[in-house]
């Protein structure tokens, strides 16, 4: 019989173990999310990240070793960003019909999200790396990670900040928009998609079909705009 | 499935090469996204050909950022010292952005005389 330590050392040399662990952790997270009635706080990614972080800690595995396996999943962020063009294409007619309010709201929401986050971060003396990681936090994760990499931020910090932003936005949107007296489903969905990307979009779809479609448009357009705004805003605060 | 996947990767590839060689501020895949929208507009048949693969990819979108998310274990120390400032920046700016977007949308709809939906 082979020594367990020998099998372990074999497994740690290839990508198989951590690729499998990533898929299983996400599967468990998604199962938990469904069991909790798809509540925003039970986000499957957050669950998977916590689970994997615990496993890495317990087995004394470094992030570099883990990433050798997980990089195959990470690579899919690029094609996924390209694929986000499809919902945008599907809604082009609705975008043209409400073009003026959409462009104005996009500019307002996107600039507010980036500039106010940087202003608060700067006021509290965050480092430049941290500011660069924070700037794209309202953008959908694959794009945010790309932006942070380009700005000299830490993509892994950005990934977590994006997640928390989405969850927070999804939780506060309904009470906040009610308090502001916004009843137009397009305005409600769109602003949530711009500020809280995919997690906000998923939340908008739970509430109303129109809100969901416009949240998706907001997420797609903001992905493009933030990649232009974030470098400019960072230069302003850098 | 393979042709559709190849076309998506080609859009990303063109995006990466173009942004790098032209020094554009956009990430390559975002340019790829714009190319996809443009190509589908010019050739609607392309959209139907790509759709099954795109639906598959987008259905598992959140899985793809698990590896980057796990990277936070390498930065726990940083969150311990910056946690409060980051949390404040994140929550306040997200609330402000939602409010700004929605209020401006409503204002412009009223200003242009459009109807609410």
Describe this structure in words.
Chain A: It comes from Paracoccus versutus (Thiobacillus versutus). Chain A: It is found in: Membrane. The complex is a heterodimer of chains A (238) and B (117). Chain A is mainly α and 238 residues long. Chain A has two domains: 4-75, no CATH class; 83-237, no CATH class. Chain A has 13 helices and no strands. Chain A has helices spanning 4-11, 16-35, 44-59, 63-75, 77-83, 85-90, 92-97, 99-123, 128-134, 141-151, 155-180, 185-207, 209-237. Chain A is globular. Chain B contains five helices and no strands. Chain B is mainly alpha-helical. Chain B is extended, with a radius of gyration of 20 Å. The model of chain B has no long low-confidence stretch (mean pLDDT 89). Chain B folds into two domains: 1-59; 70-117. The longest helix of chain B has 36 residues, at 76-111.
Tell how many strands the DSSP assignment of chain A holds: 0
For the termini of chain B, the CA-CA separation is: 38 Å
Task: Enumerate how many helices of chain B there are, as a single number.
Answer: 5
Cα-atom radius of gyration of chain A:
19 Å
* Broad shape of chain B: extended
What is the straight-line distance between the termini of chain A? 60 Å
Number of spatially distinct domains of chain B: 2
Helix/strand-derived category of chain A reads mainly alpha
Oligomer: heterodimer
- Hey, roughly how much beta strand do the residues of chain B contain? under 5%
Q: What's the total count of β strands of chain B? A: 0
Global mean pLDDT of chain B: 89
């Amino acid at each position: 019989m082979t020594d367990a330590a020998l099998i372990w050392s074999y497994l740690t040399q290839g990508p198989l173990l951590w690729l499998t662990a990533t898929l299983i952790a996400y599967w468990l997270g998604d199962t938990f999310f469904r069991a909790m009635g798809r509540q925003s706080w039970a986000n499957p990614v957050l669950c998977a990240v916590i689970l994997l972080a615990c496993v890495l800690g317990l087995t004394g595995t470094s992030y570099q070793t883990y990433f050798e396996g997980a990089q195959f999943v990470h690579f899919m962020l690029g094609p996924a960003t390209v694929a986000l063009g499809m919902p945008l294409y599907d809604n082009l007619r609705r975008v043209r019909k409400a073009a003026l309010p959409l462009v104005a709201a996009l500019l307002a929401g996107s600039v507010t999200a980036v500039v106010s986050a940087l202003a608060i971060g700067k006021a509290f003396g965050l480092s430049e790396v941290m500011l660069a990681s924070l700037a794209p936090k309202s953008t959908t994760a694959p794009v945010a990670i790309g932006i942070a990499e380009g700005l000299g931020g830490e993509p892994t910090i950005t990934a977590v900040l994006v997640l928390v932003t989405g969850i927070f936005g999804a939780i506060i949107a309904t009470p906040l928009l009610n308090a502001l007296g916004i009843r137009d489903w397009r305005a409600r969905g769109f602003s949530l998609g711009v500020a809280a990307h995919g997690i906000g979009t998923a939340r908008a779809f739970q509430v109303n079909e129109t809100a969901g479609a416009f949240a998706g448009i907001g997420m797609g357009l903001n992905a493009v705009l933030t990649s232009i705004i974030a470098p400019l805003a960072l230069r302003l605060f850098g | 499935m393979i042709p559709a996947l190849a076309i998506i990767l080609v859009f990303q590839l063109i995006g990466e090469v173009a942004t790098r060689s032209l020094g554009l501020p956009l990430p390559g895949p975002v340019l790829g996204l714009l190319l996809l929208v443009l190509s589908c507009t010019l050739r609607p048949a392309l959209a139907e050909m790509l759709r099954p693969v795109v639906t598959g990819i987008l259905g598992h979108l959140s899985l793809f950022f698990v590896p980057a998310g796990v990277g936070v274990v390498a930065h726990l120390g940083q969150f311990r010292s910056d946690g409060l400032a980051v949390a404040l920046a994140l929550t306040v700016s997200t609330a402000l952005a939602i409010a700004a977007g929605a209020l401006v949308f409503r204002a412009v709809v009223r200003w242009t005389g459009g109807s609410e939906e």
